[in-house]
């Protein structure tokens, strides 16, 4: 018995059949007609679509040499759980995430050695100056943020990042329309043409960054980007001297989902930009096949300042390469009320003077 092929209308999804009068396939629901060859090609395209394959093979990780580990100390903050690493000469410091005092006592263990490090380009004076500039003109900022001693609490910390490299074969399919309108002496006409638009090609991704620290908010770290990887060097413990380093607590496998999201978003944006000349475009499907995947581990430089105000933590971060500053500022409600009262009084005086001038005229 021969199997009968059933076709669905690409426009509305209804079942369509051959119209002997038109010698075309016609949808009885939306009255759209199709050439048989066009419909067969469309159906074959649907059958050949592949599901996403965005799996990664973990690269071989380099372990710490005993001599390198002996030169480093680490500590887990008992207040917030942040893991801090520094050189052996740092005996005591404060947690960059919550400000709790910590003593470096434990030997480094159980972590993977970074492949790369981007050394700090801006020193502490530059970070302090950037913070002062960030506060300038903000009259409703609580006094603690403007305090000179407070600004000096800024700390240089190397943040762990997983870097994802991969090539991607991408196929995108869109539903697009063009509309034409005209009229005669009796009627207005509108003709809508539907198009199935396909795009496929390959795109390479290099060093897609995903921070490996729970303590560092993802949106804040992405806002600090980009870091200039051309200044990265092979990791050496000497670069940690005088700085802290945050041990990763999100491993590369846990970071794959976020890396895939960033890759998907970038790929779709690149391919979407090629679909032009239509009045409406709607994505119907996408397929991303990753291959040649590779994952590296790196440390990126960040200046941090943590402040608590009204039982809420405020974290400020500055890119240690280019000085880009990120962080939310609180509002001093007392100062705001005074400012609002003064503004209301000023508006009242202005209105009174204007009304008096009008009355006098």
Summarize the structure.
The chain has 361 residues and is an alpha+beta fold. The protein contains eight helices and 17 strands. Strands 5, 6, 9, 10, 11, 12, 13, 14, 15, 16 and 17 form an eleven-stranded mixed sheet that branches. A four-stranded antiparallel sheet has the order 1-2-3-4.
Key phrases:
single chain, 361 residues, alpha+beta, 3 domains, eleven-stranded mixed beta sheet, four-stranded antiparallel beta sheet, 8 helices, flat
Sheet-strand content, in percent, reads: 35-45%
Report low-confidence residues grouped into runs of 5 or more: none
* Distance between the amino and carboxyl termini: 100 Å
Work out the number of β strands.
Answer: 17
Largest sheet descriptor? 11 strands, mixed
Fraction of helical residues:
25-40%
Label the structural class: alpha+beta
Number of domains: 3
Could you please describe the fold and organization of this structure?
By secondary structure, this protein is of the alpha+beta class. The protein has 3 domains: 1-48, no CATH class; 66-166 and 202-266 and 291-330, no CATH class; 333-361. It contains 8 helices and 17 strands. The chain has helices at 36-47, 66-70, 124-135, 143-146, 148-151, 218-224, 252-272, 333-360; strands spanning 7-8, 15-19, 24-26, 33-34, 72-76, 83-87, 92-94, 101-103, 106-107, 116-117, 155-183, 188-211, 233-234, 244-246, 280-309, 312-319, 325-326. The strands form 3 sheets. Strands 5, 6, 9, 10, 11, 12, 13, 14, 15, 16 and 17 form an 11-stranded mixed beta sheet that branches. A 4-stranded antiparallel beta sheet has the order 1-2-3-4. A two-stranded antiparallel sheet has the order 7-8. It is flat.
């Amino acid at each position: 018995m021969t199997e009968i092929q059933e076709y669905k209308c690409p426009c509305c999804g209804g079942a369509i059949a051959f119209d002997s009068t038109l010698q075309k396939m016609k949808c009885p629901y939306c009255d759209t007609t199709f050439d048989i060859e066009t419909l067969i090609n469309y159906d074959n395209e649907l059958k050949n679509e592949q599901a996403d394959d965005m799996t990664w093979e973990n690269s071989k990780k380099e372990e710490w040499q005993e001599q390198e580990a002996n030169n480093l100390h680490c500590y887990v903050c008992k207040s917030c759980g942040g893991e801090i690493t520094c050189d052996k000469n740092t005996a005591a410091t404060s947690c960059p995430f919550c400000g709790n005092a910590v003593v470096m006592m434990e030997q480094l263990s159980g972590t993977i050695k970074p492949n790369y490090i981007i050394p700090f380009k801006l020193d502490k004076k530059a970070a302090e100056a950037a913070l002062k500039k960030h506060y300038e003109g903000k009259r409703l900022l609580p006094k603690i943020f403007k305090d000179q001693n407070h600004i000096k609490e800024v700390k240089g910390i190397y943040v762990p990042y997983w870097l994802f490299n991969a090539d991607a074969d991408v196929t995108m399919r869109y539903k697009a329309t063009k509309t034409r309108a005209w009229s005669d002496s009796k009627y207005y006409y509108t003709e809508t043409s539907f198009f199935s638009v396909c795009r496929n090609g390959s795109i390479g991704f290099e060093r897609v960054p995903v921070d490996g620290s729970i303590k560092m908010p993802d949106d804040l770290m992405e806002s600090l980007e980009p870091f200039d990887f051309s200044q990265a060097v092979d990791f050496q413990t000497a670069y940690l001297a005088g700085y802290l380093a945050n041990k990763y607590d999100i491993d590369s496998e846990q970071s794959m989902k976020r890396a895939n999201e960033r890759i998907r978003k970038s790929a779709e944006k690149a391919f979407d930009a090629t679909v032009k000349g239509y009045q409406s475009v709607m994505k119907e499907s996408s397929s991303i096949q990753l291959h040649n995947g590779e994952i590296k581990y790196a440390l990126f430089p960040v200046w941090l300042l943590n402040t608590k105000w009204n039982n809420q933590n405020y974290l400020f971060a500055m890119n240690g390469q280019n000085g880009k500053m990120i962080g939310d500022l609180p509002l001093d409600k007392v100062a705001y009320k005074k400012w609002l009262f003064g503004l209301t009084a000023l508006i009242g005086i202005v209105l009174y003077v204007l009304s008096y001038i009008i009355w006098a005229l």
